[in-house]
Amino acid sequence: MMNVLKNKCALSVFLFLIGLYANSQEIIKDKVAEKKTTQQQKRQRIDGIVATVGDYTVLDSDIDKAFLEIEGSGGSVKDITRCQMLGKLLEDKLYAHQAIQDSIIVKDEEVKEKMNQQIDYMVEQLKSMDNVVKYFKKNNEDEFRTELFEILKQQKLAQEMTKKIVDPIQITPEETRTFFKKIPESERPLLGAELEIAQIVITPKVSDAEKQVVIDRLKEIKKQVQEGASFTTKAVLYTEDPGSRSSGGFYKINRKTGFVKEFKDVAFSLQEGEISEPFETEFGFHIIYLEKIKGQELELRHILMMPKVTSESLKQAKDKIDLIKKRIQDKEITFAEAARTMSDEKETRANGGTLINPKTQDTHFELTKMDPELYSQVSNMKSGDISSVILDEDPKSGKKYKIIMVTNKIEEHVADFSKDFIKIKELALKEKQINAIAKWSEAKIKETYIKINGEYRDCVFTNNWLKK
């Protein structure tokens, strides 16, 4: 819950940072050993500046680190040259430099919040802050935080600059038609198979007795802290929130922070040094210790505990969803009606159980881009098929049973203008955005101080970085 980090995103960032920091000189030496060129021997001895864009520089080792980022994320680098990688780094620096020229504001507080989230994840993986510092070969925590902050700030500046370029761009139906007509029939894109999916979820009921066990345990922890025990230590030992366990339950929040309403309501009702009574959210039971009030922000620690589900409750939930599935198959009720009246998943209940694709915000899921777990559950299903009963074990919300129905399956096919207008419109918009970025880059390269050094002046770049 409280872990604002999405696990997959956090892992990607973690791997990126590993690539960014870890063992850069050793990697450079490996490449020297492989290729044995004079220029690379120089690179081993001196990590020189190979390019300058406005106020930013690119080091030779930055190129190696960028390769590591891709490899660390599972990508292939065999078809990417050093010149191409440098070109990408130059683009990033140009965006960040121009963002400052255009007075784009990136708040340090936002960068620090993201940095703290990422550090929390790293500490969770490596067990301590000291291990994180050692792993990334920094001299101390301050040095590590300073470098990470600058990296994240540059990334944010580049993102905001790109957003400023592409956000105003729109595409009309006529432009979409023109874009599609320009594509030769033999070259029209092949669109992958897509599914529309609905689900019914039954959550085992937690007994009042199990809830009271957790409430009593939290009250006992509160009493111990009031008598002198450390809340931080108690959080490390007992909280079931993985996102804050390593930091002793610590979060910094304001009214806009994406926590559930019940949590924020309690947090903002406390005085400094006060510990709340146990309270319930959809994620379990909490107590909050408010450490500091800083303007509109709160610095707090919390402990989350989730009541246990009994085997009897699990059996009752399984029997219930088995009966629902049988009634649907016997045509006593439709899947959509059953979802609206009996599903425990409030996010999909009103829409008859229909799932929304979080990436596209529509109801279509492209089979090859689907979450692996969901793919394994539905990939062999046809329109109208209902899955077997699935026990879903969510680390945040606990165990629940569900059944899934494929409400519509669109097989792989060549793009058709009338049937695939939305996707074609997206492709047309993407092309228009790319052209706008290319035009913007061409203009900004001309007016920005750019210098390419040494062997990299022989590169053939997509953009005119050498200003020939």
Please work out how many helical segments DSSP would assign: 17
Total strands? 13
Unreliable stretches: 1-46
Helical residues, percent:
40-55%
| Main β sheet profile | 4 strands, antiparallel
What is the terminal-to-terminal distance?
A: 53 Å
Mean of all residue-level pLDDT scores: 85
Q: Structural class per helix/strand content? A: alpha+beta
Strand % is 15-25%
- The strand order across the widest sheet is 9-4-11-10
SSE run: HHHEEHHHHHHEEHHEHEEEHHHEHEEEHE
* Cα radius of gyration in angstroms: 27 Å
Architecture blueprint of SSEs:
Layout: H1 7-21, H2 24-35, H3 38-45, E1 49-53, E2 56-59, H4 60-72, H5 82-101, H6 108-126, H7 129-135, H8 141-166, H9 173-182, E3 190-191, E4 194-202, H10 208-226, H11 231-238, E5 250-253, H12 261-267, E6 279-281, E7 284-294, E8 297-305, H13 311-329, H14 335-342, H15 346-349, E9 365-366, H16 372-378, E10 390-394, E11 398-410, E12 413-414, H17 421-447, E13 450-452
Antiparallel strand pairs: 1-2, 1-13, 3-12, 4-9, 4-11, 5-8, 6-7, 7-8, 10-11
Helix pairs in contact: 1-4, 2-3, 2-4, 4-5, 5-8, 6-8, 9-17
